[in-house]
Amino acid sequence: MKNAERKKSMVPKGVATFLPEGAARRRTIEKTLLTLFGQWGYQEVITPLFEYLDVLSMGVGEELLNRAFKFVDRSSGRMMVLRPDVTSQIARMAATLLSQNPLPLRLCYSANVLRHEEEHAGRDREIFQMGVECIGIEGVEADAEIVTIAIEALNRLGLKEFKIAIGHMGFFRGLLEGLEGDPAITTAVLHAVARKEQAELERLLLRAKVPPKTRSVLLELPNLFGGEEVLREANRLTRQATCQNALRQIKIIFDTIRGAGYGSALLVDLGEVRRFDYYTGMVFEIFVDGMGYELGGGGRYDQLVERFGHAVASTGFALHIERLQTFLDKNGFREDYYAADLLLAYPVSGRADALRIAQGLRREGYRVISHCGLKSIEEQILKAQQMRAKHLAVYGGQSSRNLLWIDLKSRAKSRLNSEELANALAKSR
């Protein structure tokens, strides 16, 4: 019997279920971030949960497509894919549906993406993301804006001790410029750098016959991590023009963000290359002590929108909301959860009056649970606690002050009329 009941509640690994308290916190995070994004001029869009594989594959690289969930559309016979990435969808949207809109486009979203992950990998298969995309601005100004929004998003949620590790795809690609070989090797090198796999990286570089000087710099990438002194060290290691340009851009981004008062969160990580193949410039990831994975990241992708037919520079980032919520919960970044502002208890004879009072409070924005049939005060208090109500009031008849207000902490009682009840709730907000 127990096994049968357990099977009914089982869900696939890598997906999440949110019960009322967790769902409420999730909505609070969403509201906070969407409000922030809107204050920067970003407008929300909602993308499809699934798309045609041949269309989305123009923007999504082979590695990500291999991790996507695919199925056949019964109507057309075409292959479809559950959304593995939102940025590619927004790039398609910008190149088609929004192609006639004036630039820049500032768009934001809250969505889940679905990717196949091996069970031993410890990663989610359903990932809740919130992010912004700035489409139509070249250069470091938009990159600095994106990183600043990411920092301010974490600040709004109460995080203070986090780090933004900034790299640049131009530095990595500059080191490989002029090398002839299999593009698959270059991709494999990128992934080895991203995963900090030194032995595999050295094997690949030898296989690709990378010159010793360039090979030594590439092998040094995982160590090019820290403060701005890393930029000076990288300047010493290579004078290649593309690499130098990348380092200059990182320096400008640092100076801009520091000038806005956010410099303490920044680090340089020239081994930060992000594995999605559409990144072309500045890239970054967000880390906090106590989490084994990044909380989010992003960067510049100037060629992605062009894959869908409209060349335009772009940059953006996304936060991994479930990881963020897990960190907040574990570290006490949450208020007491209440399912309602008020439990309004009443006898059968007071049903109509209680309904009228409750409706008036709801119109003023309060969450009110009405409950009929309770008798003793202790029974009423217990019911309020069980229902996670913040306050308790009991309707008691036709007198002018026909409501008994009970403080759930002190058990103190006072008589109120409906107007005084509304005032008491307002003071408790």
Can you walk through the features of this model?
The chain has 429 residues and is an alpha+beta fold. It is built from 16 helices and 17 strands. The protein has helices spanning 2-9, 20-39, 53-56, 62-66, 87-95, 140-156, 169-175, 183-194, 198-207, 212-220, 229-237, 241-259, 321-330, 351-363, 377-386, 418-427, and strands at 43-44, 50-52, 70-72, 79-82, 105-114, 126-135, 163-168, 225-226, 266-269, 282-287, 296-300, 314-320, 340-346, 368-372, 389-395, 403-406, 413-416. The protein has a 9-stranded mixed β-sheet, with helices on both faces. A 5-stranded mixed β-sheet has the order 14-13-15-16-17, sandwiched between helices. The radius of gyration is 27 Å and the shape is elongated. The model has no long low-confidence stretch (mean pLDDT 90).
